């Protein structure tokens, strides 16, 4: 039985063939009757394998395979010059049902490499990472806009998109989207949606955006859109995703990433709202923002600017805005923020260099800036002082206490400092990080820098608690000479219950080979105790001295260079000094009280305690308790320790140091 003629909408003498030549394997397209002259029955067109190798036919086949692999998404119309085809056009479609590529009658040699099976991913890869995409619906003129858009939205649900400038051009429907994810979703809709009359919707996607002329009609539509986005109460204008505004998206491509469009919008705003206080330009795909340099001239009262979720790549691009006196800025969502993921402090610093008065960045409150707005450059600031006093009445107490403390600290023995600390005092040591931190080797094992010591057990171990452990620790530190000329002292808080004192300066290590000069910062909290004061809390911070500090140290005499007997005499004299007009106790009590009858002197007691601690491995506190219980008889204390130790009756706390 002869086959029925096939009517093609492409040309009167063109034929469309599928792999098995079944009507279900190709799209049905209604056509007009081509007349009686049409050939009633045409032979099938096939390309047979050529037996000749290395001929021009092989080279043509290779070029054909390469061309088809790069255009899988497009229909390829081939007009053969061979007389066997009688001038017919052969159309090869992309992968899908009825595809000639790779089939039994494929013109591509089956000996070659196979093409990818997942054409969806291939199509998505060909799109690249763009900001705008053109969507073409083949023969979309036959359907209403709502029918096409609703079917596409239903297929990609729950994802969505907004069609921009939907138009019918020729036989196709054209619109644009502003999102790569939406473009990839629409690619997957290709030939997946079947209409009621059995046709499959063909969707083509490629990067691109339309051109849009700026005329009076567009400017009027812009004004309508801006009027709805302006908030009079806060004097602010929200231009977020301005290209998707309902007043514009149907007929205009009003994308602010285009410099001319951005300037046109800003001119309209400056004409209507010259005293604008806040402007939001977020999510407009801005990548080149040089044109924003007009903001400082057009909007002198602008204090809040949002330009987040755009395409700004470098921090120096915002230099065009530095003439604005901004108080709030939003940049998050731009590629430049990715450079500061682990350097938040640097991010804040770099932004504040451009905007010194900034109070809020990316929704986070910033510390208030320290500004010196001095109109007369001839004004001279007052000189710095070595002492800050919150309460002048505390000066005599603090000065005498510090002189007494550092005199003993620089003496031959630091054991007299036992009475300078409270029974439950705390002490910690920190060292400033630097490239030469290895020069602090003698202190590093006790460095309690909380940024580097995160393990809770080690933090507790490095915190010295109790006067015996504290004095034991500072006694093991290198002997020192402090330089009084380098000292500064701040008394920032004074109450009836305590006094906060901060002392900075330099000292030299005496029992080290190179006798390094160190810079220190010591913070003391002293509280009333008996007839004097004692230290309840101390933090010692060590660092390398500055060049100026080293010069001061070399030109100064040490604070403590006297002999041991002279030091003891000075301590006794200092203890007798009376302090008037000071709330609380009026006498410093740094020296030990008179020993009870029958007890050894304080110096011998300290030596016995240290010796027992070294011999038994108990801490100083428990060694002192043991000696007191046996009336300071060393042999009895040692024998008692051995007896209790054998019976396992000494608590673990006695060995914690």
Keywords:
657 residues; alpha/beta; Leucine-rich repeat, LRR (right-handed beta-alpha superhelix); 7-stranded mixed beta sheet; 20 strands; disordered N terminus; leucine-rich repeat; nucleus
Tally the helices: what do you get? Answer: 18
Mean pLDDT: 76
Number of strands: 20
Q: Calculate Rg over CA atoms.
A: 44 Å
Pfam families: LRR_NXF1-5, NXF_NTF2, Tap-RNA_bind, TAP_C
GO molecular function: RNA binding
InterPro entries: Leu-rich_rpt, LRR_dom_sf, NTF2-like_dom_sf, NTF2_dom, Nuclear_transport_factor_2_euk, Nucleotide-bd_a/b_plait_sf, NXF1/2/3/5-like_LRR, NXF_fam
Keywords: Leucine-rich repeat, mRNA transport, Nucleus, Repeat, RNA-binding, Transport
What would you note in describing this structure?
Belongs to the NXF family. It is found in: Nucleus, Nucleoplasm. One of its GO terms (molecular function) is RNA binding. Keywords: Leucine-rich repeat, mRNA transport, Nucleus, Repeat, RNA-binding, Transport. Its main location: nucleus. The chain is an alpha/beta fold. The protein has 5 domains: 115 residues, no CATH class; 89 residues, Alpha-Beta Plaits, CATH 3.30.70.330; 150 residues, Leucine-rich repeat, LRR (right-handed beta-alpha superhelix), CATH 3.80.10; 189 residues, Nuclear Transport Factor 2, Chain: A (Roll), CATH 3.10.450; 54 residues, Helicase, Ruva Protein, domain 3, CATH 1.10.8. Helix content is 28%, strand content 18%. The chain has 18 helices and 20 strands. A 7-stranded mixed β-sheet has the order 7-8-9-10-11-12-13. The longest helix is centred in the middle third of the chain and has 15 residues. The protein is elongated. The relative contact order is 0.05. The N terminus is likely disordered.
């Amino acid at each position: 039985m002869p086959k029925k003629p096939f009517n093609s909408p492409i040309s009167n003498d063109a034929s469309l063939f599928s792999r098995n030549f079944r009507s279900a394997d190709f799209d049905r397209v209604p056509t007009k009757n081509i007349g009686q002259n049409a050939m009633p029955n045409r032979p099938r067109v096939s390309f047979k394998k050529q037996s000749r190798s290395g001929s021009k036919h092989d080279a043509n086949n290779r070029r054909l395979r390469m061309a088809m692999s790069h255009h899988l998404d497009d229909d390829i119309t081939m007009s053969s010059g061979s007389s066997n085809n009688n001038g017919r056009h052969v159309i090869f479609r992309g992968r899908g049902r009825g595809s000639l590529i790779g089939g039994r009658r494929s013109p591509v040699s089956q000996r070659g490499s196979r093409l990818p099976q997942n054409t969806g991913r291939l199509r998505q890869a060909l799109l690249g990472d763009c900001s705008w995409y053109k969507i073409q619906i083949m023969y979309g003129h036959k359907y209403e806009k709502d029918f096409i858009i609703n079917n596409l939205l239903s297929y990609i649900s729950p994802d969505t998109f907004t069609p921009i400038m939907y138009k019918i051009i020729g036989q196709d429907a054209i619109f644009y989207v502003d999102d790569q994810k939406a473009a990839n979703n629409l690619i997957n809709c290709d030939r997946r949606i079947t209409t009621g009359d059995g046709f499959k919707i063909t969707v083509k996607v490629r990067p691109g955006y339309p051109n849009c002329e700026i005329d009076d009609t567009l400017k009027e539509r812009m004004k309508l859109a801006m009027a709805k986005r302006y908030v009079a109460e806060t004097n602010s204008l929200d231009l977020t995703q301005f290209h998707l505004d309902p007043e514009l998206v149907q007929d205009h491509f009003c994308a602010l990433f285009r410099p001319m469009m951005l300037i046109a919008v800003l001119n309209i705003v400056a004409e209507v709202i010259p005293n604008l206080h806040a402007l939001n330009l977020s999510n407009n795909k801005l990548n080149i923002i040089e044109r924003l340099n007009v903001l400082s001239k057009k909007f002198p009262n602008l204090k809040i600017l949002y330009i987040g979720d755009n395409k700004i790549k470098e921090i120096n691009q915002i230099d065009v805005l530095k003439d604005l006196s901004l108080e709030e800025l939003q940049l998050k969502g731009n590629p430049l923020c990715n450079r500061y993921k682990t350097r938040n402090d640097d991010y804040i610093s770099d932004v504040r260099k451009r905007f010194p008065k900034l109070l809020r960045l990316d929704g986070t409150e910033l510390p208030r800036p320290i500004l010196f707005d001095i109109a007369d450059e001839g004004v001279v600031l007052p000189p710095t002082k070595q002492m800050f006093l919150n309460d002048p009445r505390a000066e005599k107490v603090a000065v005498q206490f510090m002189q007494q403390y550092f005199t003993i600290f620089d003496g031959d023995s630091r054991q007299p400092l036992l009475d300078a600390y409270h029974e439950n005092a705390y002490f910690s040591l920190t060292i400033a990080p630097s490239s030469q931190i290895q020069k602090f080797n003698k202190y590093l094992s006790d460095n309690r820098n909380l940024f580097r010591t995160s393990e809770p057990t080690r933090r507790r171990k490095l915190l010295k608690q109790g006067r015996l452990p504290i004095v034991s620790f500072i006694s093991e530190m290198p002997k020192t000479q402090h330089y009084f000329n380098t000292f500064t002292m701040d008394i920032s808080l004074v109450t009836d219950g305590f006094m906060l004192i901060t002392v900075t300066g330099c000292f030299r290590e005496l029992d080290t080979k190179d006798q390094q000069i160190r810079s220190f910062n010591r913070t003391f909290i002293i509280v009333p105790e008996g007839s004097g004061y004692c230290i309840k809390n101390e933090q010692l911070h060590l660092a390398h001295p500055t060049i100026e500090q080293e010069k001061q140290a070399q030109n100064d005499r040490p604070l403590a260079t006297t002999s041991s007997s002279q030091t003891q005499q000075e301590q006794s004299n200092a203890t007798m000094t009376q302090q008037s007009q000071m709330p609380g106790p009026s006498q410093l009590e740094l020296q030990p009280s008179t020993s009870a009858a029958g007890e050894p002197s304080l110096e011998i007691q300290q030596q016995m305690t240290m010796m027992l601690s070294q011999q038994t491995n108990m801490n100083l506190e428990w060694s002192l308790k043991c000696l007191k219980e046996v009336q300071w008889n060393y042999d009895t204390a040692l024998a008692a320790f051995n007896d209790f130790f054998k019976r396992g009756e000494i608590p673990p706390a006695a060995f914690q140091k």
